[in-house]
Structure formats: structure tokens, C-alpha cells
Amino acid sequence: MRSAEIYYKEVLAGILTETDEGRYVFKYEDEYVSKYPDQFITFSMPVTKLPFGDSRLFPFFEGLIPEGWLLDIASKNWKINPNDRMGLLLACCQNCIGAVSVKPIHGEDE
Question: Which one of 15, 75, 79, 101 has the minimum C-beta count within 10 Å?
Fold first, then answer.
């Protein structure tokens, strides 16, 4: 299982998790929901206490991953398979352009 903290500007908005079964779950932090109910990270994921789940990485997070020659450089330098979308997100999206950033959560086994 791999996870990341998702920040909107400097505020922890929620946690994105890839389960061992290959499903993706995003859940806004309770504090974020109460303080920023109208500050969603994307239109397709309004602020709610309920988690969002899917068998594929959510399109918004896919859009943060580099493309083209930059993707080639990232996957070769970090030795990440271009199809490992969560791995690329964790490696490449800590300092994204825009309001959202991704901070990997390292487990005890990493």
C-alpha cells in the first residue's frame, strides 16, 4: 500500500492511497472539510467527509504527472515504469506548478 498527503497551497487537504488490491482512495481530512468546505482540489471531487474510490488513478492526479520527454527523463532517472502512475505521482509531484502538491507517506517497510 502506498499513500501520499495531498496539499492545497500549504494546507493538508487529504490522503491519497493506492491499496494492495490496486484500488485508489482519496479522502479529505476532517479538519479540511470543516474549515474549507468550498475549497475543493478539483470539480470532480467536491469537499466531503466521504472517501472517493476508483480502480484507476483519478484523472486530476493523472494530470499532475509529467508527459512526453519529461516523463521519459523521470521514469529513467528514478527507474519507475511509466505505467506505475502512483509511483510517478509520488516521485514527480512534490513541487507541482499550481496549488496542489503531493508528499509521499513512507511506511515502515520503505
Answer: 79
The structure's pTM equals 0.88
The neighbouring-strand residues paired with 24 are 18, 54
**CA pair distance 24, 6, nearest whole angstrom:** 14
Distances (CA, A) of 34 to 4, 40, 48: 21, 12, 9
Positive or negative, the CA dihedral 31, 33, 37, 38 is positive
- Residue 4: is it exposed, middle or buried by C-beta count within 10 angstroms (0-12/13-18/19+)? buried
* pLDDT, tens only, 74-108: 888 888 888 889 988 998 888 878 889 999 998 75
User: Which one has a higher pLDDT value, 52 or 75?
Assistant: 52
What single letter denotes the amino acid at residue 71?
L
